[in-house]
Amino acid sequence: MLHEPEVRRHEQAILLLSPGIKSHVAPHRLYVKMANRFCALGFVVLRVDPEGLGDSEGEIDEYLVADVYGSVELGRLVNDTIDVMDWMQLNHGIGSFILSGLCGGAITGLLTGAIDKRVASLLGLGLTCIVSGSKLDPIKYLTKGQLDSLRGKYLRKIADPASIIRLLTFHTDYRLLFKSLVQPLNQRLKRYRSNTKKRSLQGREKESTATNLNPHFPKAFVRFVREKKMLLIFSGADRLYWEFEEKFMSRYHDDVAPFNSKLTIHIVKDANHIFSFSKWQDEMLNTSCAWLTKQYPGQD
Prior knowledge:
alpha/beta, Rossmann fold, globular
């Protein structure tokens, strides 16, 4: 779906990329609202379905949704995005693009922008830095933020008779309970070890293999932000921000720090992953439009 402003004020077009398995409408018609706001700023905006999704032809071979997400996180939709830019350049004479999208759309934009010079910047919502999949154990890779939240819930229920009954009748997830309670000790040990030896880049990469961090993410992120601007908007109640901070930024802070002037991060407090409520959507849209206006003043 192509949105064309009454007066085009920018040479760049904004592409809204698939969240993963949702169509070009996105949850709660989020992409329609984004397209309308961005178009009002004078941008040409394109909402597009990749092969096998929404209105596009093709089939998806994966049987489980988690495996579809995993393939998107590893670059499944990069070639589709390059094809879209080729089409826009051929048919509309546009050769510079701002890539945007929620979750899968954000990681697709990052991976594409790291290899294609036509990408000017990324406006990512809920950028995921991990790899999903049906064969991965979700409990194994919980972040500190998630475990802190779970531990608080368990401690608040310690005097609740119903919770005690669940515990004694084997209805509690004991692995989750145990991990949330022992996590603080593990964190102290990790901090002690990190303070007693300096980690090399190779050491950090080796350490990352022990998590579900996307192996393509660190190099793509540093390569992107070295040359291009990036706005990342995260939801405050979403695990993706915790994962980004703990699994990527904490390990690669020194690699990203020289380019901090090109990176803007905004947190929408209490928002869920898909910005369900209007107030969360409004904050996200206002932040996005303010950033776009600053980075691309446009022509009157």
